[in-house]
Model the fold of this input.
Amino acid sequence: MDFVRNSRFFAIPALVGLFMLAAYWGIVAHYRLAISPGIDQAQAKAFISTVKHSLGLAEVAPTTIATRSPLMGPTWLTLYARGKLLLRLRSSLPTFEAASADILSQLNSQTMLRRLPLALRKELRIKLDLMTGRGPVLSSIPLAFSLSLVDGIDGLGAEIDGREEHLLPDDLFREQLLGRFQPMASIPDFHIGVDIVRGAELLQQKLNAPPSKALSYFRFRTQSWVDDPQSAGEALPVVRLRVPMKTVTRTDVRRAVISGADFVLAQMRPDGRFTYRYFPLNDEKDLRNYNFARHAGTTWFLAVTFKRLRMERHRNAAAKAVAYLANETLPPGCNLPQRACVGGHRYSDVGTTALALVAIAEYHQISRNERYLKLARRLAEHILWMQKENGDFCHHYFPDKKQKKCDAPLLYASGEAVLALAKYHAISGDKRLLEPMEKGLDFLTKTKYDHLVGQFFISEDHWTCIAAEAAIPAVSKLQYAKFCGEFVRFGLRAQIEDDDVQSDLAGTFNVAPFIAPNNAPPGSRTEANVATYHVQKHHGLPTTETEESILAAVRYLVDQMIRPVNTYLFAKPKVSVGAMMETPVRPVVRVDYVQHAAAALVIALPLIPQQSSSTP
Amino acid sequence: MQRHHRILYPILDLCLALAYVYIFFILIPSRSAAFSVAAGAFVVLTLASGAGIALGGKWGRRITVVSACGRILGCLSFIGLLLASAAYLHGIYGAVGTLGAALSMVVAALSIQFVGLVPFFELLLMRKTRA
Done:
């Protein structure tokens, strides 16, 4: 009896568990989109050719669109002129054949297009979008609503009284709604999901609906195609706002490096600084809160690029940027005869000083210009002075008080400091640096992790591994190679795979599909992984995992770097080529996003197969 | 019911009630009045469970059984909401990702330990003492 009673008692949790499982899969099925196949490339090409013909941009008579592909919703044709939406036409007819004919007929009745100057007409970009899936969203809970769209892939629609309006993924991007919802008023910098407040306002306006009337929202998936500005009549598939590159060759990587470096170069100002933030949607530039560490990092990247590609313009730009570092970034309290540091009048962190030294050392190697050697020595002296007994560094220095502060460590500073010492050792041969370098690397690869949590996780230690490579052969231990191997493996756990639900983002590092991945980590981690590869090779360790991680990230970086074909939403298409946005869906370009990405690519170049393409 | 049960469980419930008050009203107070009311009710149920055990007897037992069942239901509802959120994200994105899965599991495991375990043992104790 007891057994039966006890069985009943424990059966309740089991039944509850089963109910929850069933409810879980029920919810999944309700919100999952059923996607229709859409059209194929030939159909898209025929359509875009016809549009070009109608615009007077192609003389060849287009092929007919004969297939009757059934559609799940509207078809849109959009014409963009220098990033601005010039014209959008929509058809809701049920087959692609009928919808495209309808749109072309609407297009032919647009007399204003014929009045456009030919030069502008030639610049027009043609975009075709088809709705291939549609599903419900939970709009009553703001956070759930904001997470209801896959960033850059889904559009948002609303319905009222039988009328519908849509915000295509392009519209959400142009309005900067992606990744911009602010769920907690107390943390204004934290954003996640789509800014549904603004999105709802826009749909309300489009529908001309009174604010008192509740709209019924839905999400939809599109299949998108864009014309190729370099090939007449071609239609290229668009995924998450860009034409994806599924594979890359060494030539592609080299091209990406040059365009990244040239973008940086074009953003250089007469005083030697770079535009700190660039907004490609409206060609705005911002120098506020200029960051010397990122300036130094970018200078280093230009020098490394010259070293690999030998293009004089990159060396000239590096020279100008180094001059700015030497002349403008040393406050009086930092500019002492025995040592020097980089920063403001009241504060300097050791990481910034270290990166300045890295840039100067690299520039010295490519130029053999001894002008900055004395400054390099004083910067190195400051870093040595900031080192603690255990090998770590004090990270903060107050030039006005001439005081250092050793608590509240910064994330990257110690790794940057060791890298700087290694780089300075390479140009000076100063043997006094060997022990501090070794102590620093010992701390970063062992002492720092001598606690329980350290057995499970690795911090953002990419500078450590770059430093470990730079220190070879002067300082080299198997321990460093093993640590960096662990760093690579730790990163692999978060690296998106090709068969993942975010396969277009394969190669980058992210832990949840509802967070748009930041584009700095794939660059900085790949810089570290390439360094790790060399450290592992030096010690005869296997490099397979490291190479896999590098190749996957390289594909991602090349794909993310803005190419001419992907500039249809940008105000100055030529200027934005080579830029790297903050995330795949956030049109803000900070100089270090480009620097980390392109630096990773340039140092990875020899590892990329020459002929055959690399696959993630 | 043994004497140490009459001391241990009320103390545990009192500590848990204080922790709930701290978490839901001081550390992360909700903007939603409904959530605050639910959290307040949960605190009352927790205190009632402890009081019932301390009181003993027929009414004490009834109070404990009802409040412990309420707390377990609350715990299950919370896990249900968590699962519904994960299912929603799974439906939208095709998967919840490593972070989503890890966070869901950690929060579910913590809520079982922190909210559901004590009332579960209290119910077992009530069963035992009835027998």
